[in-house]
UniProtKB/TrEMBL annotation:
Residues 11-95 form the Transcriptional regulator AbiEi antitoxin N-terminal domain. InterPro entries: AbiEi_3, AbiEi_3_N. This is Type IV toxin-antitoxin system AbiEi family antitoxin domain-containing protein. Pfam families: AbiEi_3 (PF11459), AbiEi_3_N (PF17194).
Amino acid sequence: MPLDAQRRKDIFKLVPEGALVTRKWLKSKDLTGHAIDNLVKSQQLESVKNGVYKRSGSLTEWGDIIYFLQKRLNTDLVVGGLSSLELQKLAHYLPISDKRLIKLYGASNLPFWVNEQTNDIKFEKQNSSVLLGSIPDKDITETYNSFTKTISWKNTKEGLKISIPERAILEILNDVPNQISFEHAFELMQGMNTLSPRLLQKLLELCNNIKVRRLFFWFADQLNHPWLAKLDRDKISMGSGNRMIVKGGKLDKKYLITVPESYE
């Protein structure tokens, strides 16, 4: 086989369709800097950004980007919230704009250029501190980050890391009402009847976001899911003072949050 044909075959195997790789990773696969530059010049590799490449002409999908962030850049970013429930077939995406929003949770930075790679996806990063507190303890953060699962992606061995449903629903409640409506959150909570009370207990104790805790128990009371009676509320503080969730809503006297009058 001619050298160029062999090299092209090797690149197809090394860099699959849509995959993103770094220059450092390519060098770890015994490619010299000179060889990488030649692959770009011969249009076998395409430079995405400085030090990041993909196979020329290949189409990068949203999962390829997340895989790259998690496995090639070693970030702690996890697919969470509504995006996580969708991937687990626990929610249906309701388009409200031309771009679908995928929320990533963690402390690592989200490279600005990832939102230039797809036309129909917008990535948004959210710090875990919105649920754990402004200055979370390192051990608490690591514990929270362990509430994940892995789903398959193409032919990758590692797959994509996403929030488990118990964690994802808390991330969703934090987005009420700015990114997710009260009504949509209620619909999502209706489908959460098989959550683990053991995992919920741990997560609710870790999560010190008072708004999220109150919303969670308000919804849970309305729906009376089987796991609700197994939660130890005495270990979960509800804080003090009123919280306005819905403008013009009615104040629920038990949880001190405003909810739509139609639900009250």
